[in-house]
Specification:
By secondary structure, the protein is of the alpha+beta class. The chain is 16% helix and 29% strand. The protein has one helix spanning 74-89; strands at 9-13, 19-25, 27-28, 33-35, 41-46, 92-94, 99-102. The strands form three sheets. Strands 3-4-5 form a three-stranded antiparallel β-sheet, covered by helices on one side. A two-stranded antiparallel ribbon has the order 1-2. β6 and β7 (99-102) form a beta hairpin. It is flat and about 45 Å long. The mean pLDDT is 81.
Length: 103
């Protein structure tokens, strides 16, 4: 993805003002959309899990079930946001939970 310029690495500036590579992909929004080498967010490419270390410190490998507002269930909450956004892009009405009907 990096060599094809589909995505780019998150960067940060140190105290001397140098731009350094960080960990994970550069993302924007929530659900987290991948940013390409030109700085544009992809409409339909989302990032979950470990590659979100640029936006979520301490992202775990495995999601824990439970209340989606519990930090331990963050990956599941992110996945729910992505599923709802994909459904919305496909033309489904999305409320609090899963898609309910096609527009």
């Amino acid at each position: 993805m990096l060599s094809d310029h589909v995505g780019r690495v998150h960067t940060w500036r140190n105290s001397e003002g140098e731009t350094l590579p960080g960990s994970g992909f550069d993302v924007v929004g929530e659900p987290y959309r991948l940013v390409n080498s030109e700085g544009l967010a992809h409409r339909g490419i989302f990032v979950l899990g470990l590659q979100l270390s640029s936006a979520q410190w301490g992202t775990a490998i495995a999601a824990q079930a439970g209340d989606l507002n519990n930090p331990a269930a963050r990956t599941l909450k992110d996945a729910t946001h992505v599923a709802n956004e994909v459904a919305r892009l496909a033309g489904f009405l999305v409320g609090e939970g899963l898609p309910t009907e096609r527009i």
